């Protein structure tokens, strides 16, 4: 909790904060592009969820530093990674405030961290090993890069388009960062293909946990009691319909590369086919279940 207090008390949306990443800065965004007429309510709700998750990355930084203690190279790079992610949260929060001036980011973020705390005291990876942790981080970055690319292509709001394009490029760089360190640890741990596949599947199944649905629930200030089942459907309905085949193809290629399979081979293509089918049918089924 100390990290939340530190961040909030230091001025959450300070545009001149020194911790902005080097690739692009808050000031590089052309805020004059904003067009309120083109904001889609469903995308706004999804971006609210994204803003609190992104901003919580400084707690993930503490977790990763605990897991990789003694690895100075990694620890240095993870600080820069965390600054990027926190910046994503800030930029998204600023966009949300333009679209919905009633949105109280500070309050929603506090509620999110209270309801979904990260073990910042951990000294070992919850994935079982350092290589497994890095493989999981690769999966997460593929997921976020694909997500922001899908939002960029789905929204007609020009400012959000610009923001998502920049964030998606950052997420891809993060994938490359974790992949680089994965190679190092993989040469020591030598996880076999079955183990690598198991780790990545575990991460995919984590989509059944509370992180995304709870963020969606809390960031949108829902007043009914939280239900994982209901908000998993609500989040899935809003997000899965954004994905097009090309987004999934690209995500599957990076997925295969991370686990050591030919990214352009038949497995990658088959995987993309299956994932796209699953996402499309989930989007339809969730919409039906929710009476949309
Ligand atoms: Fe991010
Ligand atoms: Fe990232």
Spell out the blueprint of helices and strands.
Elements: H1 2-9, H2 41-55, H3 57-67, H4 72-99, H5 105-115, H6 130-154, H7 158-189, H8 193-205, H9 211-219, H10 228-240, H11 245-259, H12 266-289
Helix pairs in contact: 2-4, 2-5, 2-9, 3-4, 4-7, 5-9, 6-7, 6-8, 6-11, 9-10, 10-12, 11-12
Name the features.
single chain; 292 residues; mainly alpha
Polypeptide structure, described:
Helix 3 (57-67) runs antiparallel to helix 4 (72-99) and helix 11 crosses helix 12 (266-289). This protein has a domain at 39-236: Ribonucleotide Reductase, subunit A (Orthogonal Bundle), CATH 1.10.620. It has twelve helices and no strands. It is mainly α. 70% of the residues lie in helices and 0% in strands. The radius of gyration is 19 Å and the shape is globular. The structure holds fe (ii) ion (2 copies).
